[in-house]
Design brief:
The chain has helices at about 1-10, 30-50, 60-95, 100, 105-120, 125-145. By secondary structure, the chain is mainly alpha-helical. The chain has one domain (about 30-145): Up-down Bundle (Four Helix Bundle (Hemerythrin (Met), subunit A)). The longest helix has about 35 residues, at about 60-95. It is extended, with a radius of gyration of 22 Å. The chain starts with a helix and ends in an 11-residue tail after the last helix.
Length: about 160
C-alpha cells in the first residue's frame, strides 16, 4: 500500500530531465592513471626481457627465477588491464560526439590503444609496450587539448 502511494506521488510530480556523461557525474577525469599503468606495463616488459634463466639445474635458483618471472607477468597483465579500463572510461564517459569534429581519429586512437593493451597482456614485446605508451600520450594530448589546456606529458620513469 505504501509503495503504491509513493509510486502515485512520483508519477504526478514533474521531474526535470537530467543528463550525465557517466553513471556518477563526478566530472573528474585525467589520463594520468592510464599513463601510470602503461608505464608499469613497459617497466615489467623490460624487466622480463632482461631476466636470465639460471644456467644450472639448481632447483632453488629455478624456483626464484620462476617466482620472479611469474610475478612480473602477473603485474604486467594486471597493469595492461588497468590501462585498458582507464582508457575505456575516458573514451566512453569523457569524450562526447562533439569531440569527433576536433579529433576525427578519436575512435581509432582509442580502439588501437585498447588493442595494444591486449597485445601487451599476451606477449612480452617491448615494442608493443612502447607503442602503448605512445598511444596513451596521444590520448593525453587529445584530452588536455579538449579542455583548452596543454599539460605536458611527463612520465614517472
Amino acid at each position: 500500500m505504501l509503495s503504491s502511494a509513493i509510486s502515485a506521488i512520483f508519477h504526478r510530480l514533474p521531474f526535470p530531465t537530467v543528463k550525465a556523461h557517466c553513471d556518477g557525474p563526478c566530472g573528474v577525469y585525467d589520463p594520468a592513471s592510464a599513463r601510470v599503468a602503461a608505464e608499469a606495463v613497459l617497466s615489467m616488459t623490460k624487466k622480463l626481457l632482461a631476466m636470465t634463466p639460471p644456467s644450472s639445474n639448481d632447483s632453488g635458483a629455478w624456483a626464484e627465477y620462476n617466482n620472479t618471472f611469474s610475478r612480473y607477468v602477473a603485474i604486467k597483465e594486471e597493469q595492461a588491464k588497468e590501462t585498458k579500463k582507464e582508457l575505456l572510461i575516458l573514451w566512453t564517459d569523457y569524450f562526447k560526439p562533439e569531440h569527433l569534429a576536433a579529433y576525427p581519429d578519436l575512435h581509432e586512437t582509442f580502439w588501437k590503444a585498447a588493442k595494444l593493451c591486449s597485445a601487451c597482456k599476451v606477449n612480452i614485446d617491448q615494442s608493443k609496450a612502447e607503442d602503448l605508451m605512445k598511444s596513451v600520450e596521444k590520448v593525453h594530448n587529445m584530452f588536455w587539448k579538449s579542455k583548452g589546456r596543454s599539460d605536458s606529458w611527463v612520465t614517472a620513469s
